[in-house]
Write a structure and sequence with these properties.
CATH superfamily of the largest domain: Vaccinia Virus protein VP39
Strand content: 15-25%
Number of domains: 2
Number of helices: 4
CATH architecture of the largest domain: 3-Layer(aba) Sandwich
Number of strands: 4
Helix content: 40-55%
CATH topology of the largest domain: Rossmann fold
CATH class of the largest domain: Alpha Beta
Radius of gyration: 17 Å
Largest sheet: 4 strands, mixed
Shape: globular
Strand order of the largest sheet: 1-2-4-3
Length: about 160
């Protein structure tokens, strides 16, 4: 994804204004209040201990800065042996499995199936609901928090948290 982003930056002639770095969030060392906007799409659910990450991102934002999170609105918390939890997750995954098969064929379905299995078993995947994201942002002292659904994709939402 970084290579795709860098290609777009170059195509738009923005390489003098935007630089890219690939780092682990836990190792990122930016000055406090370094950014106006921090954005993440389909990445943060991979981090198990979410609050310290949100707190760190909060500190990196300038006053009035925005954290933008685009994610799956799926609560994968709970006991992996709980049938109610499983059915809650399957409501989402059955749609994704069907779309992957329909739009990408068996290869896309296979990748989505493997990914879905990780979510179900909480094997490196720790999705939380947007209500839970909102609570974490409130705890980190964000002043305003907005959540919007992505049109035509009920399971995908965007959160904007303002410092």
């Amino acid at each position: 994804m970084l290579a795709v982003f860098e290609k777009k930056i170059n195509k738009l002639g923005l390489n003098e204004k935007i630089s890219c770095r690939h780092e682990e969030l836990s190792n990122m060392e930016f000055e406090k209040e370094a950014f106006h906007i921090i954005s993440s799409t389909f990445t943060l659910h991979h981090i198990k201990d979410k609050y310290p990450m949100i707190e760190k991102l909060y500190k990196m934002l300038k006053s009035g800065g925005r954290l933008i999170i685009g994610e799956i609105d799926m609560d994968a918390t709970g006991d992996v042996r709980d049938p109610k939890r499983f059915m809650r997750m399957m409501d989402y995954l059955k749609i994704e499995f069907s779309l992957a098969l329909q739009e990408g064929g068996i290869d896309a379905f296979s990748r989505m199936y493997d990914n879905g299995k990780k979510h179900i078993l909480n094997d490196g995947e720790y999705c939380i609901s947007f209500k839970q994201w909102e609570t974490l942002c409130q705890k980190a002292s964000f002043k305003k928090i907005y959540i919007r659904a992505v049109p035509d994709f009920e399971w995908y939402k965007v959160l904007i948290a303002v410092k």
